[in-house]
Amino acid sequence: ENPHPEEYRIASLVFYSFVFTVGLLVNATALWVFSCTTKKRTTITVYMMNVALLDLFFIFSLPFRIIYHGTETWSFGDTFCRIIGAFTVFYPAIALWLLAFISVDRFMAIVQPKHVKELKNTKKAVLACTGIWIMTLSTTSPLLFLRSDPDQTSNFTTCMKMLDIIHLKEVNTLNFCRLIFFFLIPLFIMMGCYLVIIYNFIHGKTSKLKPKAKERSIRIIVTLIAQVLICFVPFHICFAFLMLQDDNTAYNPWAAFTTFLMNLSTCLDVILYYIVSKQFQARVISVILYRNYLRSVRRKSFRTGSVRSLNNMNSEMI
């Protein structure tokens, strides 16, 4: 029997449907813009491509969640359930390091302008991203082989392992190591970068920076801080508390809610894409303008059609 309340099931259906629709559109557009239309690639372009790719990996798992919440039956096998459950931890680990890389990138651009050439060295950025992907995969893979399985009693017709983070407590030692390396360290890196950047802004040490570049950097920093505080900090705090609790596989609303917040990051990345890339801005603006154009055409055609119909009526009356 599913211990999760009906309200959670309905909320999950609505939430994941929204995230899938918006996230797929946003991140597919971003990946196309950064990989195909950006002529001069920089380190931040590489990081943005990885963010979009990571988001898409997660988004492609959402239809299975939606189907499960809709039918209340898991039909895709235990192995696939374990993979999606492990991805709940895999996603924020890489996402936080990518945000940390972007923070360091802004730190170099603002505080160390002498080394601005390094921002064009995409090879180092690719190596850094590849290393994080490999390390995260290696530390997440043990979650695929958990001995205690909450779905065993239902003959694997449920997938409790993916619903929230409460079922990942078996490997606590590994989880705490992961909390340090994949949460605290990137978080401290970001905090250090932001504090130094703010210090330089206050003391006027960024006078050589162009106003537009300074404004853009500030927007990126504010966006990153907000995203980390809203999406990732609550999730990891809850995760840490759950690791310290006694064994309990009951539904935890706080765990479910913070998981929702973490998943929302796939949609909030659109703000980062919009600030970073002029090409992405142009693409979004062109879509908006095209929609407005279609609306104006429809209005004109409707008005023209109305006038014609009135003329026809008048001619018939005459």
TrEMBL record:
Per its UniProt record, what SUPFAM superfamilies does this chain match? Family A G protein-coupled receptor-like (SSF81321)
A Gene Ontology molecular function term for this protein is: G protein-coupled receptor activity
Q: How does it sit in the membrane?
A: Multi-pass membrane protein
Residue span, G-protein coupled receptors family 1 profile domain? 26-273
Record's keyword terms, sorted? Cell membrane, Cytoplasmic vesicle, Disulfide bond, G-protein coupled receptor, Glycoprotein, Membrane, Phosphoprotein, Receptor, Transducer, Transmembrane, Transmembrane helix
Superkingdom, natural source: Eukaryota
- List all membrane-crossing ranges: 13-34, 46-68, 83-104, 125-146, 179-199, 220-242, 254-276
Q: Name one GO biological process term.
A: positive regulation of Rho protein signal transduction
Could you name the Gene Ontology cellular component terms for this entry? cytoplasmic vesicle membrane; plasma membrane
Q: Which InterPro entries match?
A: GPCR_Rhodpsn, GPCR_Rhodpsn_7TM
Q: Where in the cell is it found?
A: Cell membrane; Cytoplasmic vesicle membrane
Question: What family does this chain come from, according to its entry?
Answer: Belongs to the G-protein coupled receptor 1 family.
Under what name is this protein listed?
Answer: N-arachidonyl glycine receptor
Where does this protein come from, organism-wise?
Oreocharis arfaki
